[in-house]
Amino acid sequence: MTELHSTPGVDRIELMQTFIRIVDTGSLSAAAERLGTTQPTISRRLQALERFLGLKLLQRTTHVMKLTEDGERCYARARDLLDNWRAMEEDLRGVADEPEGTLRVLVPHAFGQRHLMPLLAEYLARYPKVSVEWLLQDRRPDFMAEGIDCALHVGELGNEDLVATRVSEIPRIVVANPELAATAQAARHPADLARLPWLAIRTFYHEEIVLRHIADQTEYRLPIRPRMITDNLYALHSAILLGVGAGVESAWMTTEDIQAGRLRQLVPEWQAAPLPIYLMHPYARYYPARLRRFLELVRQVVPPVMDGKPLALKPAGMPSMT
């Protein structure tokens, strides 16, 4: 009798799910944490699967774990099998269009906190059987290792093996508080701003600001020596409000302060290149309903340009479009 059949409560599906999680997270301990169990349990399940198949799936040393050739084939087949199993399970239960479970979404810190919360609230109102882990971090996730279902990313992408859809863009403008703006009130061209103290956001600009004329798309590169460099949009915004320096900010961040007179736009005929917003998720043959519905809602309500206006949401609780 194999260990598979002698271990109560363990079946082939669970063993394959455990194996996939080990590979995705990169270690037994990380897999145990993601699955809510212990490392010895994960180790026993791996051994049971290897004994049942009669194959060595992983080579492990003190510091390295890698798939064997058999392990690579098993991993690919196991993912396909589990995707098909989930699809069949949902279809037979009649819940393919009824999202449930936990959705893990990673969004940029400031943008996700200030501008996307209505979208999250609407999603939760529409689908009461779903809970969401709303992760606010300015980075690209390791989708498999972290169990992230999808992410919204601001900025250009590299050559990543992901499904990435450009859903919107964010205009960027030059702003300063009224006192600092008064010292450059006659400025009509970016060159007229060279004497101002500047602030920089490390993620998008550092040693120069590239501005384009709205009408004729003429480009001008303004060298700067920032008084402060940060990686946080809120810190940049607060410093600009306090008059520490001028800076380039996303339009959605500045709209209310400009309307209230706390900020002024400088050289309004010039803007920095807009930042694209991408909706990203790993490719798979099967996507659970909770992810499909979230992707649909993002595409439905996020406007082509994020200029600070509220998202065009329906009243909470209305059904999604199919």
Helix-strand layout with pairing:
Layout: H1 3-6, H2 12-25, H3 28-35, H4 39-53, E1 58-60, E2 65-67, H5 69-93, E3 101-107, H6 109-114, H7 117-126, E4 130-136, H8 143-146, E5 150-154, E6 163-176, H9 178-182, E7 199-201, E8 208-213, E9 219-223, E10 228-230, H10 233-241, E11 247-250, H11 251-259, E12 264-266, E13 270-281, H12 289-301
Parallel strand pairs: 3-4, 3-5, 7-10
Antiparallel strand pairs: 1-2, 5-13, 6-11, 6-12, 6-13, 8-9, 8-13
Helix pairs in contact: 2-3, 2-4, 2-5, 3-4
3D structure, described in words:
By secondary structure, the protein is of the alpha+beta class. Helix content is 38%, strand content 23%. The protein is built from 12 helices and 13 strands. The chain has helices spanning 3-6, 12-25, 28-35, 39-53, 69-93, 109-114, 117-126, 143-146, 178-182, 233-241, 251-259, 289-301, and strands at residues 58-60, 65-67, 101-107, 130-136, 150-154, 163-176, 199-201, 208-213, 219-223, 228-230, 247-250, 264-266, 270-281. The strands form 3 sheets. Strands 3, 4, 5, 6, 8, 9, 11, 12 and 13 form a 9-stranded mixed β-sheet that branches. A two-stranded antiparallel ribbon has the order 1-2. Helix 2 (12-25) packs across helix 5 (69-93). The longest helix is centred in the first third of the chain and has 25 residues, at 69-93. It is elongated, with a radius of gyration of 25 Å. The protein starts with a helix and ends in a 21-residue tail after the last helix. Residues 1-9 and 316-322 have low confidence and may be disordered.
